[in-house]
Amino acid sequence: MQDATSPAELTSWNYNETGAREAIEAFVRGIENDGVDASERIAVFDNDGTLWSEKPNYFQADFVQYRKNLGQSVTEESMEVYHQAVLDWLQTAKHPTEGCLYTDLIYQPMLELLNYLRAHDFKTYIVSGGGIEFVRPWAEAAYGIPPEQVIGSNVRTAFRDDPPTIVRLPEPQNVAEEPKKLFYEQALFLDDKFGKPVGINAHIGRRPLAAFGNSDGDKQMLQWTTSGPGRRFGLLIHHTDKNREWQYDEPSDEGQLTQGTLDEAAAKGWTVVDMEKDWAHVSPPFPTADGTSV
Amino acid sequence: MQDATSPAELTSWNYNETGAREAIEAFVRGIENDGVDASERIAVFDNDGTLWSEKPNYFQADFVQYRKNLGQSVTEESMEVYHQAVLDWLQTAKHPTEGCLYTDLIYQPMLELLNYLRAHDFKTYIVSGGGIEFVRPWAEAAYGIPPEQVIGSNVRTAFRDDPPTIVRLPEPQNVAEEPKKLFYEQALFLDDKFGKPVGINAHIGRRPLAAFGNSDGDKQMLQWTTSGPGRRFGLLIHHTDKNREWQYDEPSDEGQLTQGTLDEAAAKGWTVVDMEKDWAHVSPPFPTADGTSV
């Protein structure tokens, strides 16, 4: 698993390509020059396709399939047991086509970007369409993001008092049965598309200054972030790099990025990263023939 | 509105009464001696009856009644509008029996306790049975607690994209109509009783080390907090002070504290504050005959 000791500068980002590196640095300089209060410096990051890869399947989908193959039931399960299952899987499971650990497919340029923003007093959050509890157990070691700064989708969760435990639950078969009791539970929530600004508001209670994503699922998060007053920043990563990562936009089962969203990005001044051109390195797990990382 | 400039010591707490002050200080010394990592130092506080008063009605209930009296509708409303309404009300509305501002009824000893814990690297959270968005707009000025560290109940909330806005909504009349769309919304959630550990897990993703409450509604939060491994602390404020504040436990429409919960506190070693004995001062708005604060 990667540590969070990457440089706090955008050393894996190229100058003089699409202008993405220049745009990020200009935004951060602007925030510094404006003297924006540190409490307002909030940056939100999608996870799948933004901080790590999402091909050929969302990595969490592979985990779900792995557990299904083990014959594990979908009844009540404590959060601790679930977290440990995630950690065990990440430490051993191999990516189906790359053969490396899934966490080896974290993007080096994004680790640098996280550190760069933190060095300028930004608080960095993950806002994942994936499960909040799938990301929390390893986000601090991998990204330097503590569990309270991870936002994501959730299954139904409840508290059991004997012994005191938080549990994950299947959806209720009959909501009408005990509707009042359900209000003490977290309901199923999809932290994707229209859900992302809702999840951000629920957890942070402020509109972020900067949002980073890669797909249509991030559009509303960028809309909400960049339409606030003052200096704002929106960025989409376009997966253009078939040699070092994957090349896709529309159509795609994972991280679809449609022309409509790219058009909106152009109209609203969101930065679009061309991964092939803008990133000098992608991540450690893509070695060249002589064993060095590209 | 009070600022957060109270001392970072428990100067409004008496020694040699029930031992509450001694117990708090022993816990914090223990955490320091154990060398517990700062990231794990999380303390959660109920709001009504724990950080400010809750009589003769929960203060938010007075706000809701005030808005009803204005004839305001309960249809879709942006979060910004709601926040401003809360702030306007708090700056002008008078408490029905004390005649002061509601925020004048914040407990001075608890402001000191918040600062004391922060001085020892604790991150302090509010975990309110009241509305998360009712507390957020003023919690930073009043308690030094930023919006992202406020947890509470929520009504249904959703994102609208034209213009990009978070809105508060009445409950859906017919859940079956658009069930999938609802998953992109926050569902009604009661951050009380069994809901408190669920809310804490959803927002923080870790079990706190210390929990502070005053009623049966806080029992599960204390159970979950104090049953974790290592050094833990649970505290209940018993409202025993009919002269300087209010005297109540069971029965009570607000903040009921039953004998069963007091028995559990005794059995589990939770600290029970006797407000009359343990607090040298309650809060600024209870002046003595000569105009000084008691």
Q: In short, what is this structure?
A:
The structure is a homodimer of 294-residue chains. The first copy, chain A, is of the alpha/beta class.
Characterization of the model:
2 copies of one chain form a homodimer. Chain A is built from 10 helices and 10 strands. Chain A has helices at 20-34, 59-69, 79-92, 108-119, 132-143, 179-182, 195-203, 219-226, 259-268, 275-278, and strands at 42-45, 77-78, 123-131, 150-153, 156-161, 164-169, 210-213, 233-240, 247-248, 271-274. Helices cover 34% and strands 17% of the residues of chain A. The radius of gyration of chain A is 19 Å and the shape is globular. In chain A, the strands form 2 sheets. In chain A, strands 1, 3, 4, 7, 8, 9 and 10 form a 7-stranded mixed sheet that branches. In chain A, strands 2-6-5 form a 3-stranded antiparallel sheet. By secondary structure, chain A is α/β, with parallel strands linked by helices. The interface between A and B is large, with 46 and 46 residues.
